[in-house]
Amino acid sequence: MSKIKVLSVFGTRPEAIKMCPLVKVLEKDDRIESIVCATAQHREMLDTVLDIFDVKPQYDLNVMSHGQTIVDVSNKVLTGVDKVIKECNPDIVLVHGDTSTTLNGALAAFYNQKPIGHVEAGLRTGDIYSPFPEEANRKLTGAIATLHFSATESNKANLEKENIHKNIYITGNTVIDALLSVVDKNHKFDDKNLNHIDFENNKIVLLTAHRRENWGEPMKDIFAAVRELVTKNEDVNVIFPMHKNPLIRELANESFKGVEDKIYLIEPLEYVDFANLMAKCYLIMTDSGGIQEEAPALGKPVIVLRTETERPEAVEAGTVKLAGIKKEDIFNIADELINDEEAYNKMAHAVNPYGDGKACPRIVEHIVEYFKNK
Questions:
Q1: pLDDT digit string (tens) for 156-213?
Q2: Catalytic residue among 31, 43, 187, 210
Q3: How far from each other are the two terminal CA atoms of the chain, in whole angstroms?
Q4: What is the C-alpha to C-alpha distance for residues 115 and 326, in angstroms, rounded to an integer?
Q5: Burial environment of residue 192 by CB neighbours within 10 A (0 to 12, 13 to 18, 19 or more)
């Protein structure tokens, strides 16, 4: 059998974190010719991850521009990936998750009648507008994908509810492969202030908040709950790597006036620093999707600052709690985990439903098997 030409398409930092470990496994496999197309939907944040994993794209679309809209990104990715496919003629196109790069990369493959492999297939909240536009992106990608690489059984069940039954594979999530490769107990942070924090004798909470649907009043409630948490508990400090969005930064600075000694507002961290910060902290409060998968692998309880999650298996496993976006609910859940050791340990020791760090080799084997049987 001749080598299988695999084109991996991704463009954001979260996609890169989850796809780079897979690219590295593809590169080492004698049965595969690996080609990478970076759309650079995110530019700087993408480049740092590519450097960490030593991945060098053969194609770089560089679509990012100031003030770009979803339509702008979609047009550039669709036309750009279409040209790449026509030039390199891959046997299969791999996309990941639910970004504008994902959907439009998949559409370009579909229009060229190329098989599509969807990594992290089957995530669903059930609300087409939350998260926006990600829920629609992943549903539409699933409808045209050929191979569906699902992290969990419940992801597979979601696809089956949409009448997708062929070529669904449970692989675990590639983010665990990535995470376990970079966490080091002796890690030193680039931000030297983080190296002086007493993680052993204080309860350090890691906060991330950026989702579009949380802008405005929900974010005010989230920040108010965090402020109350550090005010009530002397041994609690919060580290908040602030999103680049100026609205979030302005609100954070305003909300945390007077408690700057308890809440550290820092710049966004590179992936390796962030992964190791998760490993060192006591508790995580987040509206991120990926962190719900990563933190349980490190034994860290997660409070999800959203009204729904596309990762219900984490809730069922007991590794995360869905707090919603109301101040009182968020505070009560966080305060219990800070002060109730039994409740904390129950979450910290729950089994991570997202796999064992071997998702990437499983995906490669399924790709090879698919072409062997064609």
A1: 999 999 999 999 999 999 999 999 999 999 999 999 999 999 999 999 999 998 777 7
A2: 210
A3: 11
A4: 44
A5: exposed
Contacts of 246 by beta carbon, 8 Å cutoff, 6+ apart: none
Residues 6+ apart with CB under 8 A from 239: 194, 197, 204, 205, 206, 207, 263, 264, 266, 277, 281
Residue type present at position 286 = T
13-53 pLDDT, tens digit each: 899 999 999 999 999 999 999 999 999 987 888 999 999 99
pLDDT higher than 90, residue 104: yes
134 in active site: yes
Q: Where are the alpha helices (DSSP H) in 162-290?
A: 174-182, 192-195, 217-232, 246-255, 271-280
**Measured on CA atoms in the order 344, 346, 347, 348, is the torsion positive or negative?**
positive
Catalytic annotation, pick one of 134, 177, 273, 294: 134
Looking at 120, 221, 287, 294, which residue is catalytic? 120
- Residue 60: phi and psi, rounded to 5, are -135, 110
66 has catalytic annotation: no
Quote the CA–CA distance of 163 and 116 in Å, as a whole number.
17
Task: Out of 15, 91, 98, 310, pick the active-site residue.
Answer: 98
**Active site annotation includes 98:** yes
Asked if 243 is an active-site residue, the reply is yes
Work out the pLDDT band at 236, boundaries 50, 70, 90.
very high
State the catalytic residue, choosing from 212, 249, 349, 356.
212
How do residues 287-298 score in pLDDT, each as one tens digit? Answer: 888 899 899 999
What CA–CA distance (Å, rounded) separates 237 from 252? 15
Angle at 300 between CA 363 and CA 344, to 5 degrees: 140
212 is catalytic: yes
User: Residue 356: its pLDDT value, please?
Assistant: 87
Number of residues written out for the chain: 374
304 close to 212: Cβ distance less than 8 angstroms:
no
Neighbours of 295 (CB within 10 A): 27
